[in-house]
Design brief:
This protein is of the alpha/beta class. Helices cover about 55% and strands about 15% of the residues. The protein is built from eleven helices and ten strands. The longest helix has about 80 residues. The chain starts with a strand and ends in an 8-residue tail after the last strand.
Length: about 400
């Protein structure tokens, strides 16, 4: 038999085509009812197997159009659907003239049995001369089915939105927990570095100084190596202290946000040679600890991206407090990037760092926006609402 498969999903058409061809049938394919009618106008087929939910013209309307056709009114028609499966849908399928109704995914044996049934029962149908009331009745039933299906889809969508909302809340809670654990671990490592590693390195530095001093001047080569060793250990101590400060900013904890931003900006400028200007509004009281830490970490991550990727010569940092919001704006004159590009595809451009910064801002109820143009620099703006006790200063 030559069969017409009508389905807007190519994978569904392929599965059915392979099944039917394995049994010796030939097939034609259409993506909707309009395309099916075009094929039927020029090709001869033995039966139609059609989905219902399709663009342009669905399966119900296609079947009704065939039953009204003088040439095609007797063509066997099988509805094969995974969406319209209620008793009302089956009743409408009978009303519009479908010969068989199958629910996806049906076993191969069921599809073949349905074909045998419709072909065995095929008989000459009278040329339709239905009165207007019959057409009106069909349209009414069809409209009711569509409304019912729309209501079902709306309910499914509402349920999906609720599920998505719960998932987002769970992800946000998980992110908050990860940030908390991360900061706790950073504090622990910073204390270990300061209390153990730094102390041990200082002791080694002292002993290397004693060694350099005790070596006789005539042993110039050994004395020179001892001095180099002392200098290397001194630089290692400085680097460990810098890492410890970055892990848990003591200045931020002790002196507040402005001092913390100034400290990390100064260290960045001295280490990289990039000019950085910091302008901060006067804060008469401390901000919430989570807010201070979020802004400090975002500045740290931004400066790291500037150092690694931006190739900037100047960075401008503004801390302002418009109304009841604290705002941190960071501008650089680097090479910029495309903010619309997916972070995972932004190789070497700090994309995943931006995701982390956004999560930190979200964690404290704030927002982070990025404006960037290639070869024209980048602007990052963080806005965080403040609790009522921080509104005054």
């Amino acid at each position: 038999m030559n069969l017409l498969i009508v389905d807007d999903i190519a994978t569904n058409r392929k599965l059915l085509r392979v099944t039917l061809k394995a049994k010796g049938h030939t097939t034609l394919e259409a993506a909707d009812g309009v395309e099916a009618l075009q094929i039927l106008a020029r090709e001869t087929v033995d039966a139609v197997i059609s989905d219902i939910l399709m663009p342009n013209m669905d399966g119900f309307r296609l079947c009704h159009a065939l039953r009204k056709s003088e040439r095609l009114h007797a063509l066997p028609f099988i509805i094969y659907t995974s969406t319209y499966t209620s008793p009302e849908d089956m009743k409408l399928a009978q009303t519009v003239g479908a010969d068989k109704y199958l629910t996806k995914p049906a076993p191969t044996a069921d599809v073949l049995e349905a074909l045998r049934e419709v072909m065995d029962k095929k008989a000459a149908r009278p040329v339709p001369s239905a009165p207007v009331v019959e057409e009106t009745y069909v349209l009414k039933q069809y409209s009711q089915a569509l409304v019912h299906k729309l209501e079902e889809k709306n309910a499914e969508l509402a349920q999906a939105n609720q599920t998505l909302k719960r998932t987002e809340e769970m992800l946000r809670a998980l992110t908050q927990r990860v940030v908390q654990v991360q900061e706790t671990e950073r504090g622990r490592v910073a204390r270990e570095l300061h209390d153990t590693i730094t102390q041990m390195l200082c002791a080694v530095l002292f002993r290397s100084q004693v060694l350099a001093d005790k070596l006789p001047a005539r042993n110039r080569l050994a004395k020179g190596e001892a001095i180099k060793l002392r200098e290397m250990i001194g630089k290692t101590v400085e680097e460990v202290e810098r890492i410890s400060r970055n892990l848990r900013p003591i200045v931020l904890d002790s002196l507040g946000l402005v001092a913390g931003l100034r400290d990390t900006s100064t260290e960045f400028a001295e280490r990289t040679g990039v000019s950085i200007k910091l302008v901060c509004v006067e804060l008469t009281r401390r901000l919430p600890a989570d807010t201070e830490l979020a802004l400090f970490r975002i500045l740290q991550e931004t400066l790291k991206n500037v150092e690694k990727h931006a190739h900037a010569r100047h960075v401008m940092v503004h801390l302002t407090k418009p109304c009841n919001i604290v705002q941190l704006t960071i501008n650089d004159d680097g090479i910029g990037f495309d903010p619309a590009q997916h972070p995972a595809r932004r190789k070497g451009k700090g994309g995943l760092g931006l995701l982390g910064m956004r999560e930190r801002a979200t964690y404290v109820g704030g927002t982070l926006t990025v404006k960037s143009v290639r070869r024209a620099g980048t602007e990052i703006e963080i806005r965080i609402p403040l609790p009522p006790e921080c509104h005054g200063g």
